[in-house]
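Ticket #4471: structure export looks truncated?
Reporter: QA, pipeline team
Priority: medium

Steps to reproduce: submit the single chain below to the structure queue and open the exported record.
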Amino acid sequence: LLGQILDHWFESEPLKATLATDAVIGAMASPHTPGSGYVLLHHVMGELEGRRGAWGYVAGGMGALSQAIAQAATARGAHIFAEKAVCHVLLGRDGEAQGVVLQDGTEVRSKLVLSNASPQITFLELVPQEQLPKDFVQRIQQVDTRSPVTKINVAVDRLPSFLAAPNARDGQPLPHHQCSIHLNCEGTQLLHQAFTEAAHGHPSSRPMIELCIPSALDPGLAPPGCHVVSLFTQYTPSVLAGGRSWDEQARNAYADTVFDCIEDYAPGFKASVIGRDILTPPDLERIFGLPGGNIFHGGMSLDQLYFARPAPSYSGYRSPVPGLYLCGSGAHPGGGVMGAAGRNAAHVAIKDFRHL
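Actual output as written to the record:
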């Protein structure tokens, strides 16, 4: 239990609750849920420029990271085709992967195929079911993909000024504006209460909010004097109580709740908003292909990690289809911007390729 770990090391309830957010981030779980301690470990196991557990902003926004990887690949001779949706994996007579078929009918032949899509899309949509073992298909269908995350991107015409640390007169960013700001985290009980509401189909009335202002460090992301604010919030269920869907009214009502909370900490925030983009779990699934809106392609619970990710006997990146590999967040060791799954999968694929 995460709560026991934090109680062992810390006394301050606000500090414990703030640390607890990294144990429940992206997970439909409470700090009191067994196994939540692992997710905290997962978020601090990496390093940034030699500093263990540190996080950083990507200059130019997160898309710049994808572009850097793409440029490194093309420099080595790779050809990248964006906006070309894959319809299905092309299989040979013996059931081995021989390439992919695009939605426009184009066939791209290849000796190996690596999928960065979720296990659900890869094996339940892109591969004929009869080519896969029944127990494997059943396992993929049963993966817990519940997600509590609603992401809200906000454009503001001035820097938020918090009651706890008011802005300087010149309106320039202060050190805390360049960090991750955690709101509604005064106690772990608040997080548990927010989780409980969502577990019953209701968006949290006092949601957990992680607020970042990347333009405070990277001014090029917004016009002079203006800023972009990234809100990572939870808990919001994929399907609302009574089977209701996330219509425009429900989305705006939840966003208003989030903004009201921020207003309590930083009066004037709501008046500074120029625009907002609300991405509920169904939106995250529809736009980014995240199953259930889950940012990790599946819960990071102990029953879905290590040798069981994405399924027992298939944690080594190979799949039941010879020549088809899984290299995304649904593979070992899971989600996060670290590239471990992709690196490991590439090594396995290269080893197999040498024997073809």
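Status: closed, not a bug. The export was complete when the record was re-opened. Leaving a note from the reviewer for reference: The first helix runs from residue 2 to 9.
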